[in-house]
Amino acid sequence: MKQRILIVGAGFGGMWSALSATRLLDMHDRTDTEVVVLAPQAELRIRPRFYEPDVHKMTAPIDELFKAVGVTFVKGMADRIDVAGKKVEYRDEQGATATLGYDRLVLASGSNVVRPPLPGIEHAFDVDQMDTAVRLEQHIKSLGQLPASSARNTVVVAGGGFTGIETAAEMPARLRAVLGQDADVRVIVVDRGGEIGAALGDGPRPLIAEASEELGIEWRLNSSVASIDADGITLGDGQRIDAKTVIWTAGVRASSLTEQIPAERDAHGRLHVDRNLKVIGLEDVFATGDVACAAVDDEGNRAMMSCQHAIVLGRSAGNNVAASLLGVDPIPYGQPKYVTCLDLGAWGAVFTEGWDRQVKFVREEGKRLKTQINSVWIYPPAANRADALAAADPLIPIV
């Protein structure tokens, strides 16, 4: 009977885990171990692009890729993880319950935006998952059918972090594409911080402020949302902003499946892992991507909940979970080089290097890099066995 590596999730962490595990098994000419991926769909959803228009196009099929390398895909939604029994219960596409056993588990089930229990939070849109981003896009297109008003022409973005800034920067153009190029549109970012772009650090912050002014984006700093309704928001100080569109981007938490793993988690719900991405205290469970709280270096930095880190985390987790079955040495995860590329809409983009985010490229030059990242670098490899497995080498740097 074959041993089984079961990977829950087919996002960046899950897909690259599957390829990397297969690569190491192939290198050792082992056919007695199968790699199985359990996920709701055999496609990589390009989540970093969900703030853009045409969200339905932000996918890449991976079924042929998995077939080319010999990974088995099971379509279903994981419901329950039994660590003691080494099995995962899931619902298949017909809604029937089924079970998959494993010898090693890699949890790669991603993360979700945190929707707090605010009055009227159900009226808020988000760009977190494909279905919710599509819902936002449909809503924006429907604004053109409403009578002209300040509320119709106003978008409020709750949260001034990376996702909030990219979403806000895209909104003026997206609104004018529907309402007309001469439409008087407003985009307002509501943020608890005391400075524009405070979460991004000293390097990018003045450029975010410059881009915001050029794009006409307003910031309400030191502010919080008290309630939301179909026609706008009320801030914590009682101020009212009329807006037909409110987008929530504040806060992200790891998949709730981490709560079924008997191990320590951080404030974001991520499982603490060792340098080989094995969940601390468990021999047979690894975590990767947004569900892993992993050290990237010896300086105290931790992996961010981003595709940049998930890709390398995935390659490492796949290699090391296979190594644990093969009895060969793992390759400790490390990702000391950290970059960001912040899309600022029509203004351009800001590319930074290092954990202190030193600015390297801005405006058009930054935008060219952002376009290359979003349209080429983060997509899956071609469905060619040799090339796909070569691309899964955990020692390949992401940038």
Automatic annotation (TrEMBL):
Keywords from the named record: FAD, Flavoprotein, NAD, Oxidoreductase
UniProt EC number: 1.6.-.-
Q: Does the keyword Oxidoreductase apply?
A: yes
Provide the coiled-coil residue spans: none
Query: Which InterPro entries does the UniProt entry name for this protein?
Result: FAD/NAD-bd_sf, FAD/NAD-binding_dom, NDH-2
Q: Name one GO molecular function term.
A: NADH dehydrogenase activity
User: What superkingdom does the record give?
Assistant: Bacteria
Specify the FAD/NAD(P)-binding domain's residue ranges: 4-311
Q: Which Gene3D superfamilies match?
A: 3.50.50.100
What is its EC class?
oxidoreductase
Family of this protein: Belongs to the NADH dehydrogenase family.
Q: What is the protein name stated in its UniProt record? A: NADH dehydrogenase-like protein
Annotated organism of origin? Zestomonas carbonaria
